[in-house]
Amino acid sequence: MSRYVKGYAIDRRKVAEYLELVDDDDNCDKISNTILDAITFVRDRSVATGNKHTFAVGHPIDSKDTVHIISSAGLDALSRNLDELKRRVLEHPDYVKELAEIICSGQDVFEIVEWDDPLVSLGNTKLTVASNLGFC
């Protein structure tokens, strides 16, 4: 059974453009490190502000291109019901919206890859996998 997450996808092409690099093998590490830096930034803001976030690996509904997804709703960003999740309105703090303008696409619904157990930042120092919170 498919699992879905609603949020923003970090877009490698936009990251490369932001860094003024070509998205190729020579720049793969720089682009990947910037993606990790973006995820770490949101995670750090989660701890500082108490906001909940979800981090997942998935792909757009109409594609198999793998993307890293950031959402600001904790478990509310996750569902097994695609149509219900599409209708769900999620609010994102300004720091996520600003990051999204620069290096992300969306907000949209993505299918979580079958091997991923999304990470959920509970807004404190805890970071746990979604399955520990009842989302399998």
Question: Your description of this structure?
Answer:
The chain is globular and about 40 Å long. The chain is 34% helix and 27% strand. It is built from 4 helices and 7 strands. It is α+β, with helices and mostly antiparallel strands and 136 residues long. The N and C termini lie close together (10 Å). The protein has helices at 12-19, 28-49, 82-87, 94-103; strands spanning 4-10, 53-60, 67-71, 78-79, 104-112, 119-121, 127-129. Strands 1, 2, 3, 4, 5, 6 and 7 form a 7-stranded antiparallel sheet that branches. α1 (12-19) packs across α2. The protein has one domain (4-133).
Helices, by number, come to: 4
Oligomer category: single chain
What is the average per-residue confidence, as pLDDT, rounded to a whole number?
A: 87
Could you list the spans in which at least 5 consecutive residues all have pLDDT below 50?
none
- What's the story with the biggest beta sheet? 7 strands, antiparallel
| H-E order | EHHEEEHHEEE
Concise overview:
This protein is an alpha+beta fold.
List descriptors.
alpha+beta, single chain, 136 residues, 27% strand, 7-stranded antiparallel beta sheet
Write the layout of secondary structure elements.
Layout: E1 4-10, H1 12-19, H2 28-49, E2 53-60, E3 67-71, E4 78-79, H3 82-87, H4 94-103, E5 104-112, E6 119-121, E7 127-129
Antiparallel strand pairs: 1-3, 1-4, 1-5, 2-3, 2-5, 2-6, 6-7
